Predict the 3D structure of the following.
Amino acid sequence: MSAGLEKRNNKLRLKRQTPLFILLFMILVISIFNKEFLTLQSFINLMQQVSAVGIVALGAMFVLIAGGIDLTAGYGLAMIGMTAATIYTMFSEINGIFILILITLITGVILGLVNGFVVAKLKIIPFIATLAIMSVTKGLSLVIGGGNMVVFKNQQIIFIGQGKLFGFLPVPFLIFILVGVLIHLILTKTKLGLYTYAIGSNEGAVRFAGIRIVNYKVLIYIMAGICTGIGALLTITKIGMATPSMYGSTLLDALAATIIGGTSLSGGRGNVLGTIVGVFIIVVVSTALVYFNVPPEMQDFFKGMVIFIAVGIDAYSNKYYLNT
């Protein structure tokens, strides 16, 4: 019995390491064809690129573990960025940096609170609820600021998104790692983390145990909203401006990263390290396409194919684990 359990646990550990093997294999293959990929500057650029989408992905992971989904991350990021930047222009002479950081966090909390209320209190299917709210945030990002961009000239603000510590460590990446550590501790050391996994695994059993699921679901979506807010802060300070169209492929990349990293779409499974690896896979794919001079119109195609293959490998390893 113990031997069988040990064998099963070994296969589970192997499954969790699958995304890491995929990442290392990709780096090896790319470096063979392009030596510049292994330079220090290349890795600094990677750290810079993974930060904002990585934090958004950590928030998406939180919701997916609980058996939900949040589709507001992309347009929500743009809405939060535009809101914070617009309010910043009103108080830039007082304490602009503090105002900018505070508003991104508060707006993120509000976005998560709305998502959580609609999903948990009104009991609307998460996909439908967040899809509707996604449309609302898209409209708000255009209305706020009159559709105009807001440019930052304060170098202290730009430092948040572009600065480097010790000459090589990007500030956004440090923030990404700190957020990752915090979320890991929440998931593994707190009741919120315990109930997040429990709700995703068997919501009925958690409800039967007398746990106030509604409150915890709202908190889970608030966590995702805060991550979107931090992602917005890093994005607007990295590009030095806020625009209604700055969301890019944030939502797709964040969700793909969490799934590639081992988070289950059906809930109950996921971890921070896997999501971080998943984000690196997404960014490495995008970087490799640029290195190999793939036309922009074809990059989404190849990126989608790599994501499809990576998810397929993960799904096969999951099936293999469950059937043995």
In short: The first strand starts at residue 150 and ends at 151.
